[in-house]
Amino acid sequence: MTIDRLLEGLKQRDPRAIGRAITLVENGDESAQAILSSLDEDLISQAIILGITGPPGAGKSTLTNGIISELRQSRKRIGIIAIDPSSPISGGAILGDRIRMMQHATDRDVVMRSMATRGRLGGLCATAGAAVRIMSSCGCSTIIIETVGVGQSEMDIIRLADITLLVLAPGLGDDIQAMKAGLLEVADILVVNKADCKGADILAMDLETVSRQEGATNQARVSMTVATENKGITELLERIAEVDSEHRDSGEREKRRRGAHDQEVLDWCLEILRPRLLAEITKRDLPLLGDPRLKAKEILEEQ
Amino acid sequence: METTHKYRVLIGKPGLDGHDRGAKFIARALRDAGFEVVYTGIRRSPEEIAAAAIQEDVDAVGLSSLSGAHIRLFPAVVEALRKAGAQDIPVLGGGVIPEEDIVTLKAAGIVEIFTPGTPIDKIISAYREACEKKSSV
Amino acid sequence: MAKHPKLAEWEKNELAKSLSRFPERKEKFTNHGGEEILRLAAPENIDDAYLENLAFPGQYPYTRGVQPTMYRGRLWTMRQYAGFSSAAESNKRYRFLLEQGTTGLSVAFDLPTQIGYDSDDPMSVGEVGKVGVAIDSLADMETLFDQIPLDKVSTSMTINSPAAILLAMYVAVGEKQGVAPENIKGTIQNDVLKEYVARGTYIFPPKPSLRLITNIFQWCSQKTPAFNTISISGYHIREAGSTAVQEVAFTLANGCTYVQTALDAGLELDVFARRLAFFFNASSDLLEEVAKFRAARRLWARLMTERFGAKNPASLMLRFHTQTAGNTLTAQQIDNNIVRVTIQALAAVLGGTQSLHTNSKDEAHSLPTEASVRTALRTQQILAHESGVADTIDPLAGSYYIEALTDRIEREALALIDKIEESGGVVKCIEEGFIQRQIENAAYQYQLEIERGERIIVGMNRFQIQEDKKPPLLRVDPEVEKTQVAKLAEVKNNRNNEKVAALLTRLETAAQGSGNLMPIIYDSVKEYATLGEICNVMRKVFGEYKDRG
Ligand SMILES: Nc1nc2c(ncn2[C@@H]2O[C@H](COP(=O)(O)OP(=O)(O)OP(=O)(O)O)[C@@H](O)[C@H]2O)c(=O)[nH]1
Ligand SMILES: [Mg+2]
Q: What does the alpha-carbon distance between residue C419 and residue C426 come to, in Å, rounded to a whole number?
């Protein structure tokens, strides 16, 4: 596909063009610049970006599937980015989140993309950010990013989102305690999924208590869902809309977008600088003696 | 800027057959060979597989079928891709497939067919080759 | 030397009772020299450990077999799984098999039937009649069993999610033949839990599926008391790549789940438990497989006693069907498969199976031809009549190796069952993907060993030859789909459509409630409501299960 045809395809919202554009940007192809500068900034700024995270098996993909169904009833065009980890050994990945959303596969207004973390520090945020922009520029008014919430990288993704949902389910062990410090604090909405299972009410109560302890800064409230039966999804979407309008009124949304923007720029700076700096360091053939930190400072000051 | 190309393939099972041991093995082996594998699971229609392949912008599609329905379903995936303007995405297939069907399937545009006992290295090389060929055009 | 009193006691009680009801096949079993073959070898010194872990055949914990005389009384049922294309074609194959000496039928259905779609459903395209026979309505079932007296043969049906419907049709055909339901013999697979982890022909989510299974237990206990209501299957779990221990553990864990569900629904343990049957895989590791069967039998007896308090011996006995392992057949040098099947079948017999299917050598290529099916059956007949292994009971008992392995498999399987229990039970572990992951990992490891040549598969990764002779193939006529669709249209034309519509509405209401759905399903099939129509009503009420991949 020539770049002209690709850009034309993006205007037409052609699924092939969207898929290809994301690949080119993800691979750092030279055409990335042309693609990214052709996007519709108005649409990008209007879209709402939802982050969905939580432990493995909590029901994130099933819930995403339910949210898609609900939003499609009001004919909204939706983008989904599902992120799975790359194998640190082979660099390959199995991307399996699509399975739960295959019922929407032939719906042209559901644009879905699976991405692997590719083990790049910070880089993920940059690529996922570009995918969000491509999708929203192609008319997706809601973009959902699904990621497994167990490590640190999802904090990057959450930074990208306007609103973050932390999905939990009863019986997943002591995860709450482990998450207390991290995700529990940053999430806007705590979703207790699998409300049809034993222990859901207790989990919801625990979460209420924890969020109350966190105090006023944390607006988190608990929602209950049964994703497999599409129960609680309407209410969840209402709650999301409320949080969104609160954020818009209070300036929180702007603040987050600003933060995400600056972080992304920083990530890209580092991404671009990394190979250059590495070349510079290798060229200098520095002696093994001496403190690396001081050497780094020296190199940067000279740049 | 550094370019980081990775081959992306979709592995799926068209039709109703639920024996996914082979498909899952291929998916894992490809991952361990450095591919990014979109796995779409069992019981997919040819149209769903084609639509997913396009959205995911994969470099190749791998199909598996053990029920004998390959003769209808594999060409149907090729056709669905063609209809969507994605005839450049190569389709490979595997399963319990008698020799004379291989000829028919290849004539219908399936680039490679693997039968039980094909060494995995050979399968991986075939995927790599198909992906390379596609990205070079 | 004097007989040990415990042995004498067994002979006087269990054995004598059994002999008086079912005499042995021969008055005297002898070897070539005319010497009498020992019925049962037992240690000279029978201690407590022996009595606790092995005991005598037909005695708790049934390690040495479920009947006191085993194959000296009656050989295992030779049951060949078959069925393809149309009901008429399959009917011909069944009659061929019966003429050849098969003693029980085993019906294979095509995938649309197994997943509850009629032949004219868009989902069925390309699949009609492919891996088994297509059944849309009672009309097909009537053709399938034409001239086969249902009071004489016992039929096993590999059907799970829509088991209720096919069972209803079978009983209805029997009634049309003048066979009373209580004389109907056979088995439905009806084991949905393993479909979620290994075989893939699920329709509904676990909860309503378990309800249907319990409905069948209850209905059959009154209407068809001689029919086995479930065949709890490890076969497909093993085919999906599990280890022997996992096969036992996941199968028995599923078994416990069915028992618990039925108890929760208020059924009486000793009424339904006697009709539970099992289905295992016989793979090529001869000694491990023999130990596996013995361990499974002992473990089930203990679980039923210790966890559920079952009392009736019939509730404790693990009776099982075996099929040789399809995944071990190679597409290369297919004659070698006959040897593989022989070893596997021998394992099943030495392990005390109640019935056996032997695979045909060409199954790695396509459906088996008549000639290869015959050889597969002959394999069983040679084992039964020439090998001598059927003339004495549990001949490997007491081997240090076999007993150690039996103990180990039981111990490890029990640990895995406990782990599933601790993690919230089978259904939860399926939803979470725990069981699937275990199987997948074992399968991946095994396959890698083959790929690396660490595990030798003769003719495939060692001792290969150049082959160009293609085996003769059996193909399903592609016209079958059209014919079947036409037949279905005709059935819909000729039935009383108003009655059918009313029955389907009644079914929908009943499904929303909590009563037993069997009576209304039975009424519906008799009016020629189709399998697809009935399943669609239930899909509407119950929803559909989605795989986690
Ligand atoms: N009972 C019940 N099961 C659910 C519910 N939601 C999801 N599940 C089941 O939980 C399992 C995991 O669901 P997924 O949607 O794949 O979970 P996930 O969080 O996306 O999992 P990963 O992507 O692997 O991290 C599946 O078997 C679902 O059917 C629910 O509300 N109730
Ligand atoms: Mg997921």
A: 10
- For chain A, the helix, strand and coil percentages under 3-state DSSP, each to the nearest 5: 55, 15, 30
For CA atoms A196, A202, A208, A211, give the dihedral sign.
Answer: negative
Write out pLDDT tens, residues C416-467: 999 999 988 999 899 888 999 999 999 999 999 999 999 999 999 999 999 8
In the prediction, which pLDDT does B135 show? Answer: 79
Is the Cβ pair B40, A112 closer than 8 Å?
no
Superfamily per CATH, domain C70-426: Methylmalonyl-CoA mutase (3.20.20.240)
ipTM value, please give it. Answer: 0.93
Residue with tokens 């594999």: B74
Contact C109, C66 (CB under 8 A): no
> Rounded to 5 degrees, what are φ and ψ at C91?
-55, -40
**CA C201 vs CA A236, C161, C192: distances in Å:** 33, 7, 8
Rounded distance between C-alpha atoms, residue A18 and residue A12, angstroms:
10
Nearest CA of chain C to the CA of B14: how many Å?
10
Domains of chain A: 1-37 (no CATH), 39-252 (3.40.50.300), 266-302 (no CATH)
> What's the token pair of residue A191?
């979703």
Which pLDDT belongs to residue C160? Answer: 97
Please choose, from the candidates B121, A274, A277, A63, the residue with its C-alpha nearest in 3D space to the C-alpha of residue C452.
Answer: B121
pLDDT tens digit sequence for A26-78: 888 899 999 999 999 999 999 999 999 888 888 999 999 999 999 999 999 99
Task: Say yes or no to pLDDT of A185 above 80.
Answer: no
Q: What is the DSSP code (8-state) at residue C200?
A: -
Q: Which residues have C-beta within 8 Å of that of residue C366, sequence separation ≥ 6?
A: B68, B96, B98, C473, C474, C475
Cβ-nearest to C433 among A57, A228, A229: A57
Q: What is the DSSP string of B13-58?
A: EESS----HHHHHHHHHHHHTT-EEEEEEEEE-HHHHHHHHHHTT-
Are residues C106 and C81 in contact, defined by beta-carbon separation less than 8 angstroms?
Answer: yes
For domain B8-135, the CATH architecture is: 3-Layer(aba) Sandwich (3.40)
Between B42 and C84, name the one with better pLDDT: B42
Q: Does B36 touch chain A (CB under 8 A)?
A: yes
Per-residue pLDDT averaged across B73-80, rounded?
96
The residue with tokens 């009672």 is C138
Q: CA A228, CA A195: separation in Å to the nearest integer?
A: 10
Using the predicted structure, report yes or no on whether residue A216 has a pLDDT greater than 50. Answer: no
Cα-based distances in Å from C118 to B84, C489, C491: 29, 11, 12
Phi, psi of C428 (to 5 degrees): -60, -45
Residue A159 Cα to ligand 2 midpoint, Å, equals 20
CA atoms of B61 and B74, how far apart (whole Å): 11
- Is A229's CB within 8 Å of C549's CB? no
Domain boundaries, chain C: 5-53, 70-426
Identify any residues that bridge with A190 across adjacent strands, giving them in sequence order. A166, A222
Is A94–B54 a contact, with Cβ atoms under 8 angstroms apart?
A: no
Find the CB nearest C470 among B68, B96, B99. B99
Question: What CA–CA distance (Å, rounded) separates C251 from C279?
Answer: 9
Average pLDDT, stretch C220-232? 95
